[in-house]
Design brief:
Radius of gyration: 19 Å
Order of helices and strands: HHHHHHH
Distance between the termini: 27 Å
Helix content: over 70%
Amino acid sequence: MEGKASRVYNTVRRVYTPKYILLNMAAAFVYYFVLIYLISVQQYGAVIITIPLYLFYALAITASVAFTIAIYSLSNTRNNRAHVSAGLTGTVTALVGGVFAGCGCTAPIIFSLTAVGFTTAQVFALNNFISSNIILLFALMIAINLFVVIYYLNKLSNPACRVRKR
């Protein structure tokens, strides 16, 4: 197992060149501001964060790491035999997190579901469920991002997907 961990570590070292470090930092800022924007839109310009800030930051950071690995793997796909490329799951989890984080005070985006056939009772139940489980939902999205990062780092460390030296 130590050989596998060593290969994954070497993959991380090769992925995180200065170019990808800058990409990761830029993506983290973009995800942070997208989350803030989604919350402010849902709360009519006010930004009331209903979760602990460390979860908010952790989601932005893990989403940016997943995004960076995805961009790297897409550029690496052309030059490896296995043609493995990561998806953009981090983007989806950050966007969903922004919607969930704004749901603490009966968010308009949730109540717009009445236009597509949900009853008022169902919309209130969904809003209450999200509000009462927001920390668990954020932790789940962070766990999904971590799983995606570990999965694709593991895939990229396989000999068939050897990371190109730059």
